[in-house]
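hiii, so i know i said id send this last week but things got crazy w the move. better late than never?? heres the sequnce for the chain we talked about at the cafe, plus the structure i predicted for it. fair warning i was half asleep when i ran it
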Amino acid sequence: MRQHPHVMSAVRKEFYNWHLWSGRVLVIAFAAIAGMTVVGFTWLTEHALARFSLVEKLYWWMPLLWTPLSTACIVWLTLRFAPGASGSGIPQVMAALEPVVDEKSRSIFVSLKLSIIKIALSAWGLLAGLSLGREGPSVQIAAGVLHHSRRWIPKRAHISEHSLLIAGGAAGIAAAFNTPLGGVMFAIEELARKPEQRNNSLILVAIVLAGMVSVSFNGNSSYFGVIRIGQLSTALLFPAAMVVISCGIAGGLFSRLMMVSLAGRSQDWFSQLRRSSPVAFAAACGLGIAILGITSHGESYGSGYAHTRNMLESNGESISLFVLFKFIATWLTTWSGVPGGIFAPALTIGGALGNDVAQLTGYPYTAALIAMGMAGFLAAVTQAPMTAFIIVMEMVDGHALVLSLMTSAMVSSAIARLISTPLYPSLADLQLLRLPQPTSTDTKKGAPQGSKSLHHSNST
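okay and structure toks below
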């Protein structure tokens, strides 16, 4: 039989190393700062999009000038000052966690400078009406803040940079969605892919604390409120199957299209223009987004949260072809190379797919299919079904839909795997191409081999 520890001896052993505890205190403090940073970033992006919406309603033609100009300026600033801030931010954090990335090269992907620039340029993107989300950038922003704490953490605290990156990235998700449990699952499913990276209680404390900071500012409420789904029955099976299958196929195609576009290896005219004149290409993408926005009466602009909330509150009212408009607008936004994520647009596209199925089949409980579509499409795009299911469950307070949301996420993700490779790991591989090429001297000394740089660093 195992012996119980001697209480006083156990206490002395736990607290004997002040370096360890000072490191823990610093990590917790920076986790709180990361949470507050994401809260501030959320406030900034929401006000930026609200300002764009206000002006766009007064002057419908304004995006034809403002959106292309802003997109071109954002891409130029990104290429000129912070190539690592381009795109979502999640692939950068995943790339920084790779063993081939040494301490000096890690700042290519994650740093406090990149976090600050990411905040400014992502907010500008929403001020321009681009179809992007703040959740992916929140991952890179929070990871940069928490990773910055390594400068003050004593070496004898034995807190690795990998732990800080995982905690920071997942804390960004927890604070952005106001879902601490979703942040924990994101750390397990997407960032901490090695078993030894998963068993760190300090990481979990930092993630939950950042989420609690968000809750303290935004209130302990779900983003879309409590959905009313009525009494579920076997009548749900057919429309639910339609939602799951359509989300799996559409999400897989979306992920594959993103990969092919961002890899930049195609020889079509558009890809060649992107390689040779990225700023002009970004302006063309901005013009396309503006045209889509005008055609959709402004519905395809921005993150899409307002559209999803309106669908839930108005029992499914939405313009026709919204899914197509939002799909293309999000693709053009990402392809342009601006800093911005796809989590929010993916949730909107999935919710709209669920709404379309509800209208087509006449199923009365539209909110249930919208929630299943959100979980299914996000899971299909990211191929992280548990993260998608938990995030949506917390956003809609959908505990009555636990099994339905879980099934939608798992099956949609499985269908998407037949169509596309996992999006974020594939984009992380592209990020690794930005590592500096080793010299012949380094190669002779046995230094790790880096990959050749891309023509342009705005691939993701």
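btw The longest helix spans residues 18-58. thought thatd interest u
miss u guys!!
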